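Reply to dn_fold:

You asked what the input looked like. This is it:
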Amino acid sequence: MRWVTRRQAMLAMMMLCAQATASEPAAPLQIVTGDLPPYAIEGQPQRPGLHVEVVEQVLRRAGSPVKVGFYPWARAIALTTHTPHTAILPLTRTPEREPNFTWLMKLDTQHFVFINRHGETPVTSLEQARKLRIVVLRGSPNLAQLLNREFSEGQIVQATKVEDMLRLLERGVVDALYGGNVINMEKIRATGRNPASFQVGMLVESADMWLAGGPGFGDSEQAAWRQAYDTMAKDGSLARIYRNYGLAPPQPGP
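and this is what came back:
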């Protein structure tokens, strides 16, 4: 009799624990990014970046308004993977990242190129680039992209911000930077540098950029966001935001 009573008590306790867990409120929604103009622009609340504006409007329409927070890029990624109900923009979707994130909403496509100083030999081949010292953004897929193409890790420098990448290039610490063409050239313009002082080399690969989340995102939440995005595309709101940043909106697709 005592054993039955104890067993019943244990079952009752387990049920109470399960009910308490189920009734716990979801973690507050958080969206993070880094300084990646024109998609995310730190320190410009009136013009916070193309993807920041798109996502903030999506969230308002879906009934969950949130302001995007800015962090160094590697820290933003760490926050996303370790903090429930946190998403990051714009995250490049790669095979290595595929199982580690919830891919919430496609935002754009970016093209990865080499950029070096005008007057030097433009980077037009991988064979040529393998002889150079290259800087990439820490936490980006760029390091893996180069290592997969037989670059040596010793020739690659990782910088915390795009601004740091440009400074290393200007000072001759590196011979070229490798990253997204739009982000890096926009950073050059936004900081008052002369775009003619730099040159874009070969296109290495292209990849899609997403709003991506860590744990804690439900199917209904994702569906509401995508529906809001589709509505923005249909009513012209999406195109207006893109025009404000001088870019064409993405073509409809998966």
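Residues 2-23 form the longest helix (22 residues).
Hope that clears it up.
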